[in-house]
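As a warm-up, study this chain.
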Amino acid sequence: MRFVNPLVFVSDLERSRRFYVEVMGLTVKEQDGGVVIFEGGFAVHQGEALQQTVWGDIEQPGGPYGRRNVLLYFEDTNLDRVFETIAPHVQLIHPIRTEAWGQRVFRFHDPDGHAIEIGEPME
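Now compare it with the structure written out below.
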């Protein structure tokens, strides 16, 4: 068995694709029907369709998407540039700060409220 990729439920697939391409700078590897797979293995799926497939209904299980139980983590070597590019387009959780373990990071929400962290690679 091998892990393939996280698959994030989204309420509007096209809006999320645009966000991850235009704001985050990700590259689409494949788009087929209700799923968009980005280079690096991250993927988003039209939530309503996947909910029907997985649970047999279209009600959001346990509440809306983007609850405070998952953090999508990315890295970039030029954190200041990335922050300046992304910050005007997102709801920030906090600006760049240095965490207790010495890494500089910032966090924000995607259009569905999923928490995203971007940090500098650790040596």
